[in-house]
Amino acid sequence: RILCDNGHICPKRCFEDCGNCQVPMLRRLECGHEAEFPCYQTEFQCNHPVSVELPCNHRVNNKPCYIDIERFRCPYPCNVRIDTCGHTCTKRCHINYDPDHLKYKCSKPCTEYRKNCSMQIPDHICSKYCSEECADCDIVVKKKRSCSHFYNIRCSVDVETVDCVKPCKKNLPCGHRCKLECQKMCGNCKEKVKKTVPECGHEVQIECCKVPTTSDCKRKCVLKLPCGHICKNTCKEECTTKCNELVDSVIPLGCGHSSRIPCFMNTVGYIHHNVQETVMECKEPCSASLECGHRCSGSCGECYQGRLHKICLEDCGIDLVCGHKCTVPCRQICPPCLQKCMYKCSHNRCGRNCGEKCTPCREPCPRHCRHVKCEAWCSSKCTVDPCIEPCMAQLPCGHKCIGFCGEPCPPLCKICNRDELLEFYLGYEEEKDARFVLLQECGHAIESRGMEMWLESGENEITVKRCPRCRTPLTITRRYHHYIRDSIEQVQKVKEKFFGNQKENMLLQRHLNLRLQAVYSSSLTLSKGK
């Protein structure tokens, strides 16, 4: 069977469908190239490589003939210098897409200085990609203000916008250095200087900018009163009209004593006509023995010649065994302490009255640091000794802490606050390895070895442990917990001896109430029988 006009015979078997003629034929295409393809096919894309010059001026030798020159993508790299950054374009030639690189995002490292960089040195080059927006230059640099002071600030910040808080360097017209902050206007000189007051001739210390007057003088007045005595007021005050200089009375007073009285009263006529007023000036000590046992501290005049004594202001003031002071005045026997118990720890405080036994604290012991850790309860005996390693913290002044590891840091520095540390001396304060403990009850910093000797020196006394400097009872300073704990136990035994056991007291109180009720009932029965 013939399949086509070219007379090709079907190569298949008789029962098979012949289909299109598949006989290969060599033909000449419109482009002039020859190609072999099946007989039935009328159209064919010529893949013959041709050499052409592309619109981008690049020449290629492998463009398939059938592809239009406008649609063929140039295989050469772009290599155009980007106007915005100066880098070379890394894409393939793209003459037909974004030829001016308006949408191109450069992925190379940025070569510009950071935004608002004032130094423009290599270290300040932007660290972002070229296509990303540069951030403000945040590198801290040293800048000089117009006032000649230096500040460490970010490179992008104008140093002139920073308020200068350093001392002013200018000299005032008087010659003194301005003591205000540099940012403030220099005002009047506040330097304290010595100047002479023209009216009294005294030298006073006033501000340099002021003119001295008697209102600035606090010294004694040098003028004489009509009686001949020097005025007792200060220069800034008016001279007194009544001289209060004490002089011997010209005659005995109404009480019979010859005493020293104010000068303006010291005439025979005044003493005779103002007996009550003048006897009140009698300074002869009363010294009478009061009912409370104290000597009267008043004078003849104050006690109205022994008729009405001055109230005794003496307080008992002794330290009770519990640590409180006896506050009842003029009593020979101190009453039981009724104040709230002063004992506390870092977790809580005892809420009972002073005469009652404290409830033990069952919180974990706070004694722990990187060297030691106590496993006991807060109120129990510690399982480890206090840490003896020095604290490694740094004080605000820059020097090392003078305390122990794990303890509250004393606020004083051995170098900067040396005089203050040596105000209270126990003997070891000036040792090179001296360590101080902050007593949390009063805030005093005490040298540790001297403090331990102080605590051990009173072991035979039944009393609370106290700060050796101010006598404040110690209750919370953990380093001396064993001393405090032992003293508390001793004091509580004394409390129980004085006030009795709580259960026994309750039983006794109940027994007394029953006895009183019985007495009351029997008295009612007797009264009804009558």
Automatic annotation (TrEMBL):
Keyword Disulfide bond carried by entry: no
Gene Ontology cellular-component terms listed: nucleus
Coiled coil region boundaries: none
Molecular function GO terms recorded: zinc ion binding
Record flagged with keyword Cytoplasm: no
Every NF-X1-type domain range: 85-112, 174-191, 292-305, 322-339, 397-415
InterPro entries: Znf_NFX1 (IPR000967)
Keyword terms of this UniProt record: Metal-binding, Repeat, Zinc, Zinc-finger
Domain of life: Eukaryota
Record's protein name: NF-X1-type domain-containing protein
Organism encoding this protein: Oryctes borbonicus
